[in-house]
Amino acid sequence: MITYVKKHAGKIPFIIVAFLTVCILTFLPVTKVYASTVKDTITAGDGKGTGNNVSGKLGPLEFSLDTDEDEGGLSATLQILMVLTVIALAPSILIMVTSFTRILIVLHFVRSALGTQTTPPNQILIGLALFLTFFIMSPVFTQINNDALKPLSEGKITQEEAFEAGTAPLRTFMLEQTEYKDTKLFLDIAQIPADTAPADIPLTVIIPSFIISELRTAFIIGFLIYIPFIVIDMVVASTLMSMGMMMLPPTMISMPFKILLFIMADGWNLIIGEVVKTFYK
Questions:
Q1: For labelling alongside 143, which of 21, 50, 76, 255 has CA 20 to 30 A away?
Q2: Which of 151, 108, 147 is nearest to 126 (CA)?
Q3: Single pTM value for the model
Q4: Residue 63 to residue 43: CA distance in whole angstroms
Q5: What does R_g of the chain's alpha carbons equal in angstroms?
Q6: How far apart are CA 98 and CA 85, in angstroms?
Q7: Is 126 in a helix, a strand, or coil?
């Protein structure tokens, strides 16, 4: 078998090209030709999607060419392209326009403050942030489903109307969590009047403003989380220095005390609860 493959290896590219050619020809639109005996008239190009009509007494047959060209083919192609683009950008959209960013950054600050390196692992933190995002965004997702997806699937509204109805809840959510100075920053950059109504502010301004606000809020929460653990590190470092244990890493001794403090304070319940409450202010 191996000898046969080596012997005919040079023919493999030609076989592949032939196979692709057959596939392309198979899926190309087929031209339909109809023939009937209607006096001495021939009509060519009187089909859908063509604009040339030629008639004359050339024979006893009538030929009608129908290329079956779909007038909305280009529109359908663009729609498929848009759907594929949205699917490819879905993870980024989920991260950037929901509560996911703030939650994940806060969880990473918690892990860094504890000094546990990779515990909990990234998969656990991302999974927890994802499910908390679904919990927080469930009213928004429900409204999008009721106002946009269901009417669109039932044919009651157009795609443009569905887009407007679907982005309205997200727009409201992001504006409620965005500080005015961040929105004003991008309004000034885009040369849009600062007194523009919220409904008229484009998404290209709202989304980056929302992301900046989320980063600021997450870093503020992270700073507050660090304070008690820094105190423990300072106490442990001072104690070791007073005892003359200069070569012993303070982080090795302080980590058990930080974990103990975190457990006694029921840290996960406290932090997750407070982070979730920040979205309902």
A1: 76
A2: 108
A3: 0.67
A4: 6
A5: 33
A6: 19
A7: helix
